[in-house]
Queue: 2 jobs
Job 1
Amino acid sequence: MTKVFPQITAHGGTLINRQLTGDARQAAIERANGLERIILSDLNVADLEMIAIGALSPLTGFMRQADYTSVVHNMRLANGLPWTIPVTLAVSAEQGDRIKIGQSLALVEPTEGGERLLAILDVSEKYTYDREVEAQNVYRTTEEKHPGVARLYKQGEVLLAGSVDVIDLPLRAQTEFAELRYTPAQTRAIFAERGWRRIVGFQTRNPIHRAHEYIQKTALEIVDGLLLHPLVGETKSDDIPAAVRVESYQAILSSYYPASRVLLGVFPAAMRYAGPREAIFHAMARKNYGCTHFIVGRDHAGVGSYYGTYDAHLIFDEFTPEELGITPLFFEHTFYCKACGQVVSLKTCPHDKSQHVVLSGTQVREKLSRGELLPEEFTRPEVSRVLMRGMR
């Protein structure tokens, strides 16, 4: 009989579940018929799914003004709990003027055939905000070249706050990676069933390569299990599609990883490219999934040159280990060294760059578009073939 160990507590103390079932769900569907509808953006849809399943615990809905202001300026909710990314619902000034405090709204996602009902929002507050202040604090830039800033500037001028009652998860939750879309409650149950006490989470928006494999396996040496958790929400247009990235993991797991020590699931969040702040955000979410440790790579969630090389590591110093409640594992940039004959990092390799096998994203795309397999020192041939098919 497997011994059951105490699990890490969800962020804020309680794992949230905002999904309605049975009579309550049916009543909400009928209630929604006469409500004003809010059409959600891709980011809103991803956030709503994460709130519904508890991945963003302790949030029960979109942030009220006190929480929003505290997060933007202090990286904490109004009650002092660490939280680094605003989770908000923006509408136009015109629509905001029509909406009253206490009003209920139907939240819908756009579909090819029109709209699909997802949830009801009970509006507890509405407020205006300064997009440039949010951009500077969260993204460390006000430049529209930054994808997160560009998305922020396009959204509405009024933020709506309130708890959500979720009638149905987004359509993508049923059609995209449904068999890998574990909720936090499900991952926790799997960890308990497998007897894992220490679990490390790995976040990625890129296909797996040998450096990733090295980091994951190094971390696995000190824990019981590894949650491979590629992000499958909205990313930049030039990022590798989620389906290709997930397939790249599936292509090598059975041959190069111990099945009893690894769980592959998908993370439904959208990328914000908020660098250091997003590293904390990703860690808190994985804590809700039941991870006790979290891998933080160099330039985690970075884009362009907006963040310093080690900023995603240094930001963890602004919180105590007790209030974060999850242990970060910091890793250097790793690569294959021909002279060392293995994957190494700047901490362990004494050789100059001429011995290092490092490819930029542009070089990877160029090789694949020419039908060339990537060097085996860079990634497994199985992954190269998956990426090549994806390019076609």
Job 2
Amino acid sequence: MLEALSFEFMQNALMAAVLASIACGIIGSLVVVNRIVFLSGGIAHTAYGGVGLAFFFGWPVLPCTIGFTLAASLVMGAVTLRHSDRVDTIIGVLWAAGMALGIILLDITPGYNVDLMSFLFGSILAVPVSDLWIMAGLVVVILALVLLFYRSFLVMSFDQEFARARGVPVSILYLLMLSMVAVSVVMIIRVVGLILVIALLTIPPYLAGRFAKSLGKMMLAAIAWSIVFCITGLWISYQFNITSGASIIACATVCFAGILLTEQMVKKVRA
């Protein structure tokens, strides 16, 4: 692995993994605590429509996908707030519509020759320096917003009714949180791809939440878990010449299963 670090593409991959892990740990913790994993999955798959738009009109992929995903997340958030009884159905429709739009636009794009697998399973080894700067800027924005509204997010995440009674603008914060989910999802797609994005967004925060005593510590632990999974997955990918995104998620899944099994065995021994 050390010899691989002499290559620029591997250095870029590690930097992308760290940046995505920071966003993943912070926003993933909010996703897990607020129980909006399905909603985040809808946002993630709708992002494919932004990819299709970017290639069809010849726009930069990352900014276009972020803009499209932000719009989709706000629509889903508004629907969730107004029609809570129909959330699953509407999210499912938007999920499928975004995927269909992206596939159709890519099919009719003149001279389209982009590898579809790179968006479905990640292309961390092909992240350019320009995307790293955009990712770094987005991470700074996410950190600033979470630090600024940390107490409000904390109260909203555990008791929305109490938060409203205290004058916390729950609806606005909820839409802001979904917007940050959208940005984070697009960043993580560069690392593990569209299909695997939810695993990296939820597994590290879930493991962190089993041991952390506060939301802030949960975020920090989730960042650490995510970095470990990404670096280990990259090393396995390099050693065995397999897809990097799948390797990262495989590491996370094995660790997840191992911790759960160990806890069950300890409980049985104590019983």
